[in-house]
Amino acid sequence: MAIPDIHSLIAKKKIIIFGAGKEAKEFVKKYSDKIKINYFTSNDETEKDFDNLTRINISELPIMKGGYIIICASALGVAHIESQLSLCFQPWEDFVDSNIFEQAFQGKKKLIVVEGLCHQELVVKGLTLTPEINNDYIVKFYWKALLKSNASLRQQRNLLYRYADFVIQLQLRSEEAAASLVNVPIIKMPLTYMQFLYPQIICAQEMGVTYLCNPYKMKLKKKLGDIRAFRYTDTNIVRMLQQGFSEDDVLYEISKLDFYDNGYLEKIMTSSIRTNTINDEMADIHLNTFIMQNFKERKLFLDGQHWSNVLAWEAIRQILYLMGLGNIKIPDLNLIEELTKEDAVWANEIPIYPSVIKLMGLKWAENDSVYTMVKLNEIKKVTFHDYMKEYIRYVNYSLKVQEVW
After folding, report:
1. 3-class SS at 140?
2. Do 121 and 95 share a domain, yes or no?
3. Which residues pair with 168 in a beta bridge?
4. What is the pLDDT of residue 228?
5. Which residues pair with 39 in a beta bridge?
6. Greatest mean pLDDT among 130-134, 211-215, 345-349
7. CA 241, CA 353: separation in Å to the nearest integer?
8. pLDDT at 133
9. Closest C-alpha to 285, from 314, 257, 308
10. Which helix (H) or strand (E) holds 270?
């Protein structure tokens, strides 16, 4: 079922811009001579940057009759606004975000609905940068966490299934079957990790009651600044600091080429392969073989969970094949760099222990010994030693904060 024509939808409706920030101003400037915009939303009575538009409070939207809402906000802002609007309005018929509106306004008639995590966001970026997709398809992304916590947003997504040509979703054992209830091709993606290169962290788990969680987070930020680079817990460093090792001694120990032994890493590797194989079997996209064939020569993960540019494009290549576009040329673009322009934290990497590099024979890591660290939107290249020195200080202070809280 084709998506409704956006020109027909807005023809007899009053257009409302949801937002009054930079995105809204840019949209109004671009489209004021193409469509008749009537309102903008702002709870600030002094807002005067939209001289020709009528200001309405957000609370007035549910009682507005004959309106069409165009959301103008950042990507994360759009996701949350859509969650709220879906309580009273239907997607596409009543509201749409400005990015999708622009694509529909240009005449795109096909729709791909994608839902998932960071992996799938990389896929969305790659698809939109592929000319054969970008010329014909609108690609709509839903965050898994928001879908899980918001029934209205799930309903909104289900409504869009009616218009989708393809649905791409993260396949989980508990995955709901909403997409299977409509006649739309579903491409299922696996949950893929690389635990054996990062045995110091626990992949696929939330942080738990540890070093980034409230009530400690604000105290840590006040003392140490931006701590997003340290969003995972290094279990070795925590254990040694709790045992009374000094910060210098901890750094010395984890830098040893024999810190991990081969038997321990092989055990973790066997477990990782088994998990990824099972996940591949439940999905349409299969990545484990590619990982095992390439992990020594090429960087495939940034931290054991988040994909590198290489692995992302392999997943996209397989998706395009399943869409019947297997012969098209993949763009020579770095998706991490593209997403970093929107959110710097995307570039952050976790260093691999020297003992892991040695025992696993990681040629790419031997040739490139620097890692990307993101702090306060500053992106810098650091060595294993420099990164871990900062991280050890951070964990040590975190432990002290917990002791006195």
Report:
1. strand
2. no
3. 114, 187
4. 64
5. 16, 54
6. 130-134
7. 18
8. 94
9. 314
10. helix 262-281
